[in-house]
Design goal:
Number of helices: 9
Number of strands: 16
Shape: globular
Structural class: alpha/beta
Strand content: 15-25%
Order of helices and strands: EEEHEEEHEHEHEHEEEEEHEHEHH
Bound molecules: oxonic acid
Oligomer: single chain
Radius of gyration: 18 Å
Strand order of the largest sheet: 3-16-15-10-9-8-7-4
């Protein structure tokens, strides 16, 4: 038998799989559905200070090899998720993570101070990479801004936390961002990657875009992004000091979950596949991962984590 468990930053997961922030996690009903599934943990939709409607619909579409979304951070406001976390059974339940994505640094600091004061066992994932707010850049692509935000965050939030990063595509950028992240010891994990920003899916029959916001531009997920996600996991696994990397991007079976862990991922998030298949995907992916490990003769995740061979 294989052991799929992973313990990290005080979090004990029976298996390494959980939802990507944004998918099946905006309402308490959705969060409860992930908690009731075979997922090893759950994370909330990125929250803002005030509730947000988000971008006009249609704002999500399935595409031939994945998905495109320009949701625009629709969420119930941080108090809703703080209340959910306060009521949550942290002892008996699965680990709960909270994603925070303020519209400004001040908003981020106010929300983080509130989560700090609530003194909950949840780990925070600070989203530096939402690509879908018209007119707003992805903070993660501005190294100076990222450093400034993190400098202010660690003054307010003293517990270990993580950041959700956009995909990078250039070794110089991997090195630059790793250098910024390594200067914050309490930043204990990164989640790689957020959607590949501002892609364009065209429907040939209608000769039209498939989502309304931003002239059809949206974050790309699914099969399209797997190689980019794996590269980001492996590069940050290699470049970061004493931090965990959480893999996200293109996971739809035990195979891609295995690849992310082989590249160095401590745990693995599922986005597009969860959106399309529903919470049953967790048991399927879990069992596929276990079978793959069995076939390959690995008893635990640590047996192969980060052991990607190079030539
Ligand atoms: O960080 C985000 N990534 C996405 O792909 N979409 C959401 C969103 O638009 O709310 N946010």
């Amino acid at each position: 038998a294989v052991d799929l468990s992973v313990s990290w930053l005080g979090v004990n997961m029976e298996n390494p799989l959980y939802n990507a922030s944004g998918v099946m996690c905006r309402s308490r009903e959705e969060l409860d559905a992930v908690a009731a599934s075979a997922a090893g943990a759950l994370i909330t939709k990125s929250c803002t200070l005030l509730p947000r409607e988000g971008n006009p619909e249609p704002r999500y579409a399935k595409a031939p090899h994945g998905s495109i979304n320009s949701m625009g951070l629709p969420n119930a406001g941080y108090q809703y998720y703080l209340d959910y976390a306060k009521a949550y059974d942290h002892q008996g339940g699965k680990p709960l993570f909270v994603s925070v994505s303020g519209m400004s640094l001040e908003d981020n600091l106010e929300m983080l101070a509130a989560f700090r004061d609530a003194d909950l066992p949840c780990l925070v994932e600070l989203n530096l990479s939402c690509p879908n707010l018209p007119g707003k850049p992805q903070i993660g692509y501005d190294f100076e801004a990222s450093s400034h935000v993190l400098s202010e965050v660690v003054k307010v939030y003293h517990k270990p936390f993580g950041v959700k990063l956009p995909p990078y595509f250039d070794p110089v950028h991997f090195a630059e961002m790793a250098s910024v992240l390594n200067s914050f010891p309490s930043l204990k994990y990164v989640t790689c990657i957020n959607s590949v920003g501002n892609g364009l899916v065209i429907d040939l029959d209608s000769e039209s875009v498939v989502i309304k916001p931003k002239g059809g531009l949206g974050g790309i997920g699914g099969d399209y992004v797997l190689p980019t996600a794996l590269a980001n996991v492996r590069e940050f696994y290699r470049l970061l000091d004493d931090k965990h990397v959480i893999g996200c991007g293109g996971v739809k079976s035990g195979r891609e979950a295995f690849m992310h862990i082989l590249a160095g991922a401590t745990a693995v998030q599922v986005g597009t596949c969860l959106y399309e298949e529903g919470a049953a995907c967790f048991a399927r992916i879990r069992d596929e991962l276990a079978a793959l490990m069995q076939q390959k003769g690995y008893a635990t995740l640590a047996d192969f984590r980060g052991k990607l061979k190079t030539m």
